């Protein structure tokens, strides 16, 4: 009997051992694939000149190999995905943003210096005095170009050229031409046919036997395209058209002409604290920034006050014993919280429309007024507070209802014995007892509204604009929407300045989060 049980258990034990072994090898193979993939990303980003992304994936791949390669770090494997995600999606963007804030990174300083130099060296210009008049000749279903030098012009004695049939032009629209002694037989096509084929001719680049490129310079002429710049040994560029010299300036990130003019595009360079100095020292930036900074705090603070007031009053009314149908009222009052915010914002945007909105229609019929909600700065701010109070009060209502439920009923009974009414109970008992546990949540709500980008973007877009600002700034902008407009909506797209403002926003929000943790008595 013993031998039989042992023989029956052996295959089961062996199969479990093999399954565990295959699982370990599968995990090792998966880790090897992940590590190799990250190393491939490191090489790819390094070759493209993106050293920060290459460093990110190098650290990620090395930590992945160490954590999953050592048995002593087995307990860290369960935390690694969360830490890796935080590093990639939180820490790295933060560090990258802070790094950009110390540079002149913008739409004018976007490319690397090598790419800017290559772009200048690829520029060409039409040589003067070497143009060819051209005519179109038809050969069956195909067209052929005949070129003849103007006056005494020509290319190394070549005065007449004829092209291959235009139908043979490749995808790059390069077409070879060769010297001829006389014009083709037949009558050339008229100007109407030339105009009809103008787009086709403008896309052509004619290549002569000595590799000179000719491009269309007018309705009747082609001219040689010559390289405009030549690179010198010291890194400067010589303008072959007028002999001027372009000098690379590593402080500004531009090529500078002899007269001091900066030529775009440029390349990013470190500028130290210049972006931060612009925020506080440049009057054209400081004025709008401080105005938006103050409005951001006022908006977030008033939103918290208004939503708390509405939510607290409604929660107190819903706890009234004499109120019938509490479940129905509770459902109706919380319903705005279930509707997606962007839908509610767009509905309010239509209702506040100055010309045909329902709100102005009612006000005009009752009081004869038609407020300019979107053009008057104070009315636009008032509209934002009204809409945001509507969107935020259900959250405060839920919080207050839950906290009120935890208040002992004995306190209200004692208040009733002393002659206290509903208003006394609300202000003397309910509010003081729920305010302390609400404080961390109020700070969190303040931080959320401090960065309430969706409301501004969908309702006002930051408008009306602040006059005289050198950056795109509006009277209803919050710091987050102001930063977005500087980075993506301005013609200059000043990413460095936007990153500096974003860094300041991070410091403010981080400070509020730290305060929230302290008030919540959480050890940090």
From TrEMBL:
Keywords tagged on the record: Cell inner membrane, Cell membrane, Membrane, Sugar transport, Transmembrane, Transmembrane helix, Transport
Keyword Membrane in record: yes
Organism: Litchfieldella rifensis
Listed transmembrane segments: 25-45, 51-68, 80-102, 292-315, 327-348, 383-404, 438-459, 495-517
PROSITE patterns: ABC_TM1 (PS50928)
NCBIfam families: PRK10999.1 (NF008232)
Location of the protein in the cell: Cell inner membrane; Cell membrane
Listed Pfam families: BPD_transp_1, MalF_P2
Function: Part of the ABC transporter complex MalEFGK involved in maltose/maltodextrin import. Probably responsible for the translocation of the substrate across the membrane.
Superkingdom field: Bacteria
First-listed, main subcellular location of the protein, grouped into a coarse class: membrane
Oligomeric and partner information: The complex is composed of two ATP-binding proteins (MalK), two transmembrane proteins (MalG and MalF) and a solute-binding protein (MalE).
Gene3D superfamilies: D-maltodextrin-binding protein, MBP, MalF N-terminal region-like, MetI-like
Ranges of residues in domain ABC transmembrane type-1: 293-516
Record family assignment: Belongs to the binding-protein-dependent transport system permease family. MalFG subfamily.
Membrane topology reported for the UniProt record: Multi-pass membrane protein
Signal peptide: none
Protein name as annotated: Maltose/maltodextrin transport system permease protein
């Amino acid at each position: 009997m013993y031998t039989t049980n042992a023989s029956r258990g052996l295959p089961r034990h062996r199969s479990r051992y093999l399954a565990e072994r295959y699982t370990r090898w599968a995990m090792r193979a998966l880790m090897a694939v992940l590590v190799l993939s990250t190393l491939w990303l490191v090489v790819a980003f390094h070759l493209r000149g993106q050293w920060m992304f290459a460093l990110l994936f190098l650290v990620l791949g090395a930590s992945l190999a160490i954590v999953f390669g050592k048995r002593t770090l087995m307990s860290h494997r369960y935390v690694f995905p969360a830490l890796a995600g935080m590093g990639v999606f939180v820490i790295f963007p933060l560090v990258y943003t802070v790094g950009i804030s110390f540079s002149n990174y913008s739409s004018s300083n976007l490319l690397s210096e090598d790419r800017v130099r290559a772009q200048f060296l690829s520029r060409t210009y039409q040589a003067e005095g070497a143009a060819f008049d051209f005519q179109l000749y038809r050969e069956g279903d195909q067209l052929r170009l005949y070129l003849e030098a103007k006056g005494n012009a020509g290319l190394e004695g070549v005065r007449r050229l004829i092209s291959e049939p235009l139908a043979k032009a490749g995808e790059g629209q390069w077409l070879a031409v060769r010297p001829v002694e006389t014009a083709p037989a037949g009558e050339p096509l008229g100007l109407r046919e030339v105009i009809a084929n103008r787009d086709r001719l403008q896309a052509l680049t004619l290549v002569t036997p000595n590799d000179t490129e000719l491009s269309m310079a007018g309705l009747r002429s082609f001219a040689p395209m010559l390289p405009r710049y030549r690179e010198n040994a010291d890194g400067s560029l010589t303008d072959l058209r007028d002999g001027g010299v372009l000098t690379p300036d590593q402080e500004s990130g531009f090529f500078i002409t002899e007269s001091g003019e900066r030529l775009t595009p440029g390349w990013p360079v470190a500028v130290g604290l210049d972006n931060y100095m612009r925020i506080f020292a440049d009057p054209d930036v400081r004025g709008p920034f401080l105005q938006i900074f103050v409005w951001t705090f006022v908006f977030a603070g008033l939103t918290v006050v208004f939503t708390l007031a509405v939510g607290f009053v409604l929660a107190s009314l819903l706890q009234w014993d004499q109120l019938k149908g509490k479940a129905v009222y509770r459902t109706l009052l919380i319903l705005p919280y279930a509707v997606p915010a962007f839908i509610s914002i767009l509905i309010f945007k239509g209702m506040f429309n100055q010309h045909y909105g329902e709100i102005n229609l009612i006000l005009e019929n009752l009081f004869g007024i038609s407020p300019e909600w979107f053009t008057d700065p104070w009315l636009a701010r008032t509209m934002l507070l009204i809409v945001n109070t509507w969107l935020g009060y259900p959250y405060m209502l839920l919080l207050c209802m839950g906290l009120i439920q935890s208040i002992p009923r004995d306190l209200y009974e004692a208040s009733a014995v002393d002659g206290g009414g509903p208003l006394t109970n609300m202000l003397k008992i309910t509010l003081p007892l729920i305010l302390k546990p609400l404080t961390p949540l109020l700070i969190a709500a303040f931080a959320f509204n401090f960065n309430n980008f969706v409301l501004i973007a969908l309702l006002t877009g930051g408008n009306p604009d602040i006059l005289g600002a050198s950056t795109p700034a509006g009277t209803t902008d919050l710091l987050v929407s102001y930063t977005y407009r500087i980075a993506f909506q301005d013609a200059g797209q000043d990413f460095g300045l936007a990153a500096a403002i974003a860094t300041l926003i991070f410091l403010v929000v981080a400070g509020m989060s730290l305060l929230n943790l302290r008030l919540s008595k959480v050890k940090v």
